[in-house]
Amino acid sequence: MSARRIIHVDMDAFFASVEQRDTPALRGLPVAVGGEKLRGVVAAASYEARRFGVRSAMPSVTARRLCPDLVFVRPRFDVYRAVSREIRAIFARFTPLIEPLSLDEAYLDVTEDQAGLGSATATAEAIRAAIRAETGLTASAGVSYNKFLAKLASDQNKPDGCCVIPPARGAAFVQGLPVTRFHGVGPATAAKMARLGIVTGADLAAQPIEALTQHFGSWGAYLHGAARGIDERPVRPDRVRKSIGAERTFSEDLIRPADLHAALAPIIATVWERADAAQARGRTVTLKVKFNDFRQITRARSVESPITDEAGFAAAGAELLDALVPLEKPVRLLGLTLSGLGEGDPAAPAQLALAL
């Protein structure tokens, strides 16, 4: 079993929480960051809005139907990126091994006790306290011995909570969950699993690796380990990558160009924030589109010189999307990748070993 100590930090309703922090009149109200009035899609929803069923990537017209009093706020990605950098600086006080997943979440490997706090749990609580004190925002954290379990744990006590899964509890914790809680298991995969009689982690653990590989390809081996609480993937700082990308699966299919462009905006922001963190620039932008029948296409554009700012990256992504309009079928997923990257400098390791 891995001896790593991993923390997954996930900000609580990040975009919406920043807006409520900066505009006190919005506190306690159902807030959606995204499209104006009845146009566009929801980029983020406050917890007050989530109680009505409002979710990110949902068309604004649906969100308004679910919550007539919903307050729409235009996204301010420059502000979110600035706050994300503040949070990243807090992480760096505790470990150089930071793997951002988006503006609002990251894995941290704290196996080496840089802060001398004695345990990964104490480190996670110190990070959460620093985020609250310095940004006025709350974060949830999961602490475990691998990335898969740490990410599951961070969602366990949201919002503003911390959950620890020690090695002795890993397999039992996973096997007690529905497979829909597994990262990467979307509605289509969950439906396929259900047809195979796989509904819980225990059902998944009962499947031989040969059967999982037959039905899920190379991902089957990962699922076989994950169902037993095993995940040996290391935390990989953003500095070493051939490409940087992000994608989002929508709760409802999109087809209107305005909705698709609104849905692409937070993906652009996430990819560019990762590129900034890696001090990387690239020459090729690739758009990934998955339709509602699960057919997938990609379109790419390369330029002579590396793209040096977010506006140029956003323009390239928008042009690739515009070239597909009018779309033949509704879209369930969009992704954007920047490739041909430069790399940052490696960071130095720290010293003392931690317990959970």
Automatic annotation (TrEMBL):
Its main location: cytoplasm. Keywords: Cytoplasm, DNA damage, DNA repair, DNA replication, DNA-binding, DNA-directed DNA polymerase, Magnesium, Metal-binding, Mutator protein, Nucleotidyltransferase, Transferase. It catalyses: DNA(n) + a 2'-deoxyribonucleoside 5'-triphosphate = DNA(n+1) + diphosphate. The keyword DNA repair applies. Mg(2+) binds at residues 10, 104. Gene3D superfamilies: 3.30.70.270, 3.40.1170.60, 5' to 3' exonuclease, C-terminal subdomain, DNA polymerase, Y-family, little finger domain. It comes from the Bacteria. It is an enzyme of class 2 (transferase). Its cofactor is Mg(2+). The record marks 15 as: Substrate discrimination. GO terms for molecular function: DNA-directed DNA polymerase activity. The active site is at 105. Binds 2 magnesium ions per subunit. Residues 6-186 form the UmuC domain. The keyword Cytoplasm applies. Its EC number is 2.7.7.7. It is found in: Cytoplasm. Monomer. Poorly processive, error-prone DNA polymerase involved in untargeted mutagenesis. Copies undamaged DNA at stalled replication forks, which arise in vivo from mismatched or misaligned primer ends. These misaligned primers can be extended by PolIV. Exhibits no 3'-5' exonuclease (proofreading) activity. May be involved in translesional synthesis, in conjunction with the beta clamp from PolIII. Belongs to the DNA polymerase type-Y family. This is DNA polymerase IV.
